[in-house]
Amino acid sequence: xxxRRRELVATSAHRKTTSPYELAQVVHDVGRxxxxxxxxxxxxxxxxxxxxxxxxxxxxGLHAGMRFTYKNPDRSTDPQAALAGARSxxxxxxxxxxxxxxxxxDGPTGRVARYAWGDRYAPLRVALHQIADxxxxxxxxxLVLADDNSIVDRAIxxxxxxxxxxxxxxxLLPGQGSWFVLGSVLTTAPLPSASAPxxxxxxxxxxxxxxxxxxxIVAPGVIDAGRCLAWLVQAPGVIPRQFREALGDRVYGCDDxxxxxxxxxxxxxxxPPSPPDEGDVATVDLLEWLELSDAELMARHGRWYIAExxxxxxxxxxxxxxxxxxxxxxxxxxxxxRGAVRSSDALLRSHGVWALGRLGLGALVPxxxxxxxxAEEIGLVRAEMNLPAG
Length: 390
Fold this sequence. Notes:
Layout: H1 3-14, H2 20-33, E1 38-43, H3 48-59, H4 73-76, H5 79-82, E2 88-95, E3 109-112, H6 121-137, E4 142-146, H7 153-159, E5 164-165, E6 171-172, E7 180-187, H8 208-211, E8 217-219, E9 222-223, H9 229-232, H10 241-247, E10 250-252, H11 256-259, H12 262-270, E11 283-285, H13 286-291, H14 294-301, H15 312-325, H16 331-341, H17 346-358, H18 372-384
Parallel strand pairs: 3-10
Antiparallel strand pairs: 1-2, 2-7, 3-11, 4-7, 5-6, 8-9
């Protein structure tokens, strides 16, 4: 345990916590001193409304195969399933927005969503564990959850009075916006919970809806994951053709709906984002990505959610981005796409064929392929480019 952590635990331990309200104050004090931007407390009762919505949207196909909290809604909406005897949930929020790092390199690059520039869940977990230590010292059991499918973090944060659900389904903190990662401490401590959720403050604002490149916000607070670019780059298999152009240079995540959100813009004007952390990665070299080995890609980006833990999906994303932002007169781009269509992996070949068509490199489009998915892509591209059938 670090010296700072010992000091925080010692501070909380020496306070006389004769009531749940005093213990709650300790929790808030420890969380704030540990660097959290917001701390709230919710009851550990099942999240019945979140459960209903998860089941409903799953039945409607809006989850598009996404697992995470959709995998087992009955579990992810019941804190008791993660920690038997839980009576309260302490929720913490940590800001992750940073100023843009200086771009480097002269090749085509792919964009990374802000939450994934660096590991902001690491300091979040440290802060949550400090809260857990204080509660453990008081004789209560705890369980820290962050970026975990065991709990619907936005729903429990809403119950804890930290923020409201925006039209883009993100949780917005009053006066601070939505650039936050969320985590929880489940505990057997009987802490007083928030008296009421934060009221919806979006009002008539609909800035996020037209800003979504694919129209994934299908109703206030409802996202069709099958159209959401942030999910499409994480989903396994083929990226649907109709959304590839909209992906632009994105290779991981999408921030469009948050970038236009007025509370975020107002906060960033009032308090400009802090400089990027050392090692933050806002963009990646697409050509380099296609050259790296599996081990090298995972060493760099293994903390990301990568479909099936298979880096071929990162290469797939890079090929689509290359088709959108690469230049047909750049010999490095041409050679990279030649390599893609010659790959032993049909997933890469099919997206490589599409990228060739997107850049107008019809002479490099194969005439045929034994894989039906690749063969279908070849047929579509050749028809679009008025090339003779293979």
